[in-house]
Batch of 4 targets.
Target 1
Amino acid sequence: MSTTPTRVFAARLAGLPVFDPQGDQVGKVRDVVVVLRADVRQPRVVGLVVEVFGRRRIFAPMTRVTNIDSGQVITTGLLNMRRFELRAAETLVIGQMLDRKVKVKSTGVEGMVFDVAMEQARTRDWVLSRVALQETSKGFRRRGQTHVVEWSDIDGLHRREANQGTTHLIAALSDLKPADAANVIHELPPERRAELVAALDDERLAEVIEELPEEDQVEIFAALSQERAADVLEEMSPDDAADLIADLPPETAARLLELMEPDEAEDVRRLLEYGEETAGGMMTPEPVILSPDATVAEALARVRSEELTPSLAALVHVCRPPLETPTGKLIGVAHIQRLLREPPSELVAGVLDTGLTYLHADASLEDVATFLATYNLVAAPVVDDEGRLLGTVTVDDLLDHLLPDGWRDRRIEQAGSA
């Protein structure tokens, strides 16, 4: 342990890779687990929450940690792969301590915790030693002054607060992908999860909800006001919104559809008309659609949109007006790989793949899978009997339905051994 820094700030550990002694990465740090003591003694750090491959969260005891530095954590490699469960006496530093309101005993300064330092005591145990806090801003000052204070000089970290705040927890989650942020939210205590959900903006909350198990989705929506729930649904992709609405009580679903913007609600209503395990029920009604006179340059500009998933960006649909689903007749599709090889001034209509037999809305999961596999595609157009484009089924839509029921729960919980 001689190369380990004498003091490490917990929030800076989040996301660091965890390696075994052979140099193979076994996961990433997601939180620090401590046991608070009844007196003023420094809390003992008992371990790290580590997310291993497969998105399972396990507990890595500090006795298995041999080195911590600014870029990595090294363990003995002997880790129990059972899913981590927080015990009654334990507290998560990032999940539960950040944003706690505290007071400095010696000065009376009040502020909000934005980080906590841990270090090794003489006994070789790791303990929480310092608290980094930010004073509440006053007047026109943008940010309050920051302080790093001895743990023993802080009052307020042993008691729970009704409204803790989420500023620094949100900052800790800001760089995570939606699926990883969903894992964190799933593991939070109910009251802390509610605080975080209330603080997230609608777009970020929609991204995270799409990655949560159905039970968590329904629970979160039950706690939201109907007005906000409708706003979040508008930010979700229509197919995910339709799946969620289908899981809600009928009267709640009807009311939310009434509160949504008419255009957004209409897309969801159309998807609800199709069977859940059909191309119509899985499709996204907002693919990339262009008119026959569009150029390759215009097509490439459209697929560069960061709002598109990689699978949606892989296919450009050329249709007769109107250009919103259901469109006029679908003339053909252009693959992004072909577009990249053509002059920017070339018309998209001149580089179309017109030899495909498109899917119909009632196509089964097997039909969709066969189509994608046959033509080596990641997206497949869905048309009606008149050849009008209704939407596109992507490979990720298909996988959502082909994977066993509750796969999101298993992705997060991964009960059992590796």
Note: The chain is about 35% helix and 25% strand.
Target 2
Amino acid sequence: MNNQDLINITKEFGSPVYIYDSERIISQYKRLINAFKPVRNLKINYAVKALSNLSILRLFNSLGAGLDTVSIQEVKLGLEAGVDPKKIIYTPNGVSLEEIEEVAEMGVQINIDNLSILEQFGSRHPGVPVCIRINPHVMAGGNTNISVGHIDSKFGISIHQIPHLMRIVENTGMNINGIHMHTGSDILDIEVFLYASEILFDTAKNFKDLEFIDFGSGFKVPYKEGDIETNIEELGEKLSARFNKFCKEYGRDLSLAFEPGKFLVSESGKFLVKVNVIKQTTSTVFAQVDSGFNHLIRPMLYGSRHEIHNISNPGGKERFYSVVGYICETDTFASNRRITEIKEGDILAFDNAGAYCFSMASNYNSRFRPPEVLWHEGKAHLIRQRETFEDLVHGQVPFQFETQKAKKMSK
């Protein structure tokens, strides 16, 4: 996509609007596959929470990927997209036993991350294959909200609880067919990841009937030119060799699984907004746009950086702007950012808008969520309509209040 393509999309579908480039998604998927070529059995399960549009799920299904889901609703989206339930792994956190049982009935791979539910599920369904989610207590992540491998994390079963875990497995006779590692997001140091992997390999030796080992994901993607990212090729080379060695020690070939979300879709996405107002105060020039953190919350929630380009004036002189939204509270996308000169009516493009952007959008301030467009084979395809007022009130049940005048007349 070039700038004119993006501008044409805003003319056709309005702004704000999300756009995803299928070619970029496919190239990232192939990059990951190629990095782990030495592994005989590789499973890539796309993390649905990153971007859950049905068309995106269908794209991954066409590539041969499975899905990583965290809710029964995501499981149902995957099935709606035509994905084989055997290619879906369900990794919830803190959900009810009833939800897990309902998902198990769908034929989906269950992944359990706490001892209480493990014992209850194993006692009631010992024949159902279960994966166990392990917390190796290895920290990874660029923000406290996504660095969740610490000992007090709500995610995963602590490696220090392995003896208790083994008692549950032995007492219930349940079928453990996989183990899973949880560390967090934005992994930069490959050696830290490999260290955590050794803990997982050591844990795997406790189980004799494994079919796969799931290393999660959390790969760091670049958010600006020259930004650091996870070296997938180096990780693939080192982890593949170690995994193949472990399989020989274990006595048979297992599948190596990953659950990337951001790595696959982040860079494919653009978020386009229109500048409503240029407002200058004593020290700041604001570019106020027709969106807010109701549509893209990551800068406010995580302090994340999204590069912003004025595609209406790409060759203009650079000035400093604070790009802010129209939500009725502090709503800042970027502070004092160098952007080519902006005028009212210009279109700004946000990079890295494919992951955790639309999927975290809301109707705060009663604003409509924007449409989603897939750029595929040189054409723009609408894959989600812009919401309407009817969508906003759908499901609401208005309560009828008696007016004061009617109350007086009834007396």
Note: The radius of gyration is 24 Å.
Target 3
Amino acid sequence: MAAKLQPSAPKPRHLGGAALDGDGPRGQWGRAWEVDWFSLASVLLLLLFAPFIVYFFIMACGQYSCSLTAPLRDLAAGRVRLSDIWARTPSLTKEAAQIYALWVSFQVLLYVALPDVCHKFVPGYVGGVQEGAVTPAGVINKYQVNGLQAWLITHLLWFANSHLLGWFPPTVIFDNWIPLLWCANILGYAVSTFAMVKGYLFPTNARDRKFTGNFFYNYMMGIEFNPRIGKWFDFKLFFNGRPGIVAWTLINLSFAAKQRELYGHVTNSMILVNVLQAIYVLDFFWNETWYLKTIDICHDHFGWYLGWGDCVWLPYLYTLQGLYLVYHPVQLSAPHAAGVLLLGLLGYYVFRMANHQKDLFRRTDGRCLIWGAKPKVIECMYTSADGRRHHSKLLVSGFWGLARHLNYTGDLLGSLAYCLACGGGHLLPYFYIIYMTILLTHRCLRDEHRCASKYGGDWARYTAAVPYRLLPGIF
């Protein structure tokens, strides 16, 4: 669910192995070395239109009660001009700038200046200093994993303010929603531009860079693999997890507070959205160490799609359900609410258990039980960039015997539950499931393209054993 904007994957020059900068072998690790016309077109379209998509959704709620078609009809009929819509849009304010600067500074402080202590007394939680995966240049970065601690501190302060301190109203995020959007855009473009300049002039590791010769692709997809400042401030981990995902639950709480202020109560649909999305956010931080081995950290470079995407796209479009429910409070029937809750919990269960099975299989090298039995595997081999042959195993038991990406299927079920909580009155809250379906299907194909290149004929044996990608018996 925390997946970000992703353009179409470029075609690789070579198969298998790791990609190194300079004169090293140019493998498929990370993003492309060269850009085909389709990938470049995708990049240009996203750079041009993604900011306007976010603005359109937020504007539609503020000015057209969340209708996506009403502003288009008004423009087509000449009843309104673009300049009229823009004139009604709140501008950047000093208050919003102060709020946002304080928010980001506080999250930076929690990230770099407060080492994790949760792992010392919370059973089962893995935090503190952890190692990431090997980078293309052979570097193993260390990370200060303290996202759960940052989330807990932030939310304890939020509730203390709401019930005891009264420094600011709990509706403060909603009340400054569009002015905060301009602040988020400023930070997103600033950090993306800084990462681009840093990649050229003072990289953290020069061998973990990629250049295509195309400015727009380099800007969007990033040059550096793991840009850092100092020992602990890792751009990729910070912006992937903080400030956007920590803010996600605060944003929903502010929307719920606004609903109560406007209507005198909080609807069960708003409660469902808050609870189900909070489960996902907490899962993310509980498993932050596991996240260090995911595609975002292990393969993606840091550019605009992560920098801007984490600052703007994620907090503004992943929270559309709560925003919609402020303008259109929905009180679900008991069976409808129960169905949404069960679907959301089912999606989370499949998502979490599928990932748990894979993680258990990897940690024990297959010496474990999956659904009470010894796991079935496909033995395979691959060649790394240095020419060495390696043995590996692909799991074909449990959820991974039903479909090759059933963790994504669980993710999609949870995403659908968020949307169904909003009823069927408008299309806007369903953008999330449409977007996630496109993104995760693309990511599924991207993963498989990399694996086919890496494992060759062994991957063909695996796909024969597990023929479906996301939906058993269908796709």
Note: The beta strands are 128-134, 140-145, 228-229, 233-234, 377-383, 389-395.
Target 4
Amino acid sequence: MPPNRPSTSPLLWVPTGYFTMALAYVMLTSVSSIMFKNLGMDNGQAAGYSSMLIFAYTIKPLFAPFVDMYRTKKFFVLATQLLLALGFGAIALAMAMPGAMALLVAMFVLMSFIGATQDIASDGVYVTSLDSRSQSLYCGIQSLSWNVGPIVASGGLVYLSGRLHADVFGHDPKTFGPEWMDAWRVIFIIVAVLTLVMMAWHVRVMPDGARAPDTPSSAAEARRILVDAFRTLFAKPGVWLMIAFAFLFRLSVGFLEKIGPFFMVDPVAKGGLGLSNEQLGIIYGTYGLAAVLLGSLLGGWFVARRGLKSTLFTLCCAINIPNATFLVMSIYQPDSLLAISAGVVIEKFFFGFGAVGFMIYLMQQLAPGKYATTHYAFGTGLMGLCGMVTGVLSGHLQQMMGYVPYFIFVMVATIPSFIVCWKAPFHHDDGMQDPAQAAKPEPDGAPSGYSA
């Protein structure tokens, strides 16, 4: 079935659609950890609760076929955006209730499933409304628009929460506790209104999206397709090594992701750097994300020139070794914003540079076959599972160890990443093979291990 060509320019709905996806995802899985920390949770609780919200995004391939079966993809985009707007508004109201924390966590969990459904439907509109040439043409805009979401959420809104807390509500910015609810209530109202505006815009400009040719017509058929997709996945030669790669490549990053911001805002007396939310928002949400984007662009260019097989070890070094900047900062506890910003920028730039290797490996080696989209989603789901597991553990481990020993542990956690890169099988052309060599497929069961 040919794509359902949109009656409006994709420039009117691709940027806003992916920005809205990212805004919900970052608010639920990342900014929520800062909010929990501000409200007085210890590092173990704050990292654990926010990490559990990744679960819905990890398993979304399992319920994606069922979303495709009913109504239009646009209907699900609009419905989920309306529910998210109402949910963010309800969170703002719930903060004023007694015993609000348990209710807030339950609401966040429910909204994570709604947000994951929004991702499925929005990707569906993009894939079925644009032909292959248009998908390639707007891919850069799609990626850039998604990355605006973290800049607004982790940068602008975290910064604003600090300004509201200190300047508007007159609270002490260095003290964590229930007083922070005033500021965060305003933040969630802003997110609710913004999401509602995006939904109203998409009512006007977003196409319906077409049904894919292999869309299941019943729940039984959807289950059959899922079972067959998993059967063919585990029949691939070297699949367990590829699964290990998908889960372990970003292991050290998972242990660093939640604790890095906590380290920034924790008091110097507790081993942190004592930054305010405003400073954290600027450093992480602006400088850090700009470094990730630049690193990703240069990493993609580097792989395109030399091929993934010959660059994978370099990419592994890039994503792991710069984590040492946090170990250095925890030892010396600099008070210079320039030095702290430089440490974050170095780590984020090389993370962006190295992370492209993960996505390209999944696309080139794990995904190819009858169910390429499902198998790719399975790989990214393993990445999400790694982030969830490491996030849940990270806060408790840091509390037991303290910051300096914990960041030493993060460096030790880089070892599995190097092992899976060394063992990662290459069964498909990485784009740099000789045509004569590419024409000779490797026999099943004889994986081509990566040689450093």
Note: The CA atoms of residues 18 and 258 lie 24 Å apart.
